[in-house]
TrEMBL record:
Entries under Pfam families matching the protein: FeS_assembly_P
Domain MIP18 family-like: 5-84
Full protein name: Metal-sulfur cluster biosynthetic enzyme
Domain of life of the native organism: Bacteria
SUPFAM superfamilies cross-referenced by the UniProt entry: Fe-S cluster assembly (FSCA) domain-like
Amino acid sequence: MKTEKEIRAALNCVIDPCSVAAGCTAGLDDMGLVRQVSLRETEAGTHVEVVIAVTEYGCLMGAPFATEAYKALSDMPGIANVEVRLDSQFDWDPEDMSADYQARLHRHRQGRSGVIPIRPISAGSCASGHAPARGVSR
């Protein structure tokens, strides 16, 4: 029989793209998006039910998260059946992140200078071929 720890480890291989954009990659479990894991042993193997969340109501990652979670769990040996549902509460909070990830994110943020360099745009360099907007130095 599979354990909840094994299931959560597999779900943690599904990476949250916002964490990538923030420069500190995290999986679903580290992000606190795995709301529930239920396991039931059957003759064919372990039946897994998981409920996953997104960070906010407008997040478009619900369906991709569910698809990737299903694939990750279905690929595990000994898994007979997988059900993935999305949490309808939209009550995620940054405190839901694992303590390890919170610490790693904090260290990452401390290491940044706080300044994001922006290179000036030259006329015609935009994909549209239009000049930069007013107020943008060349």
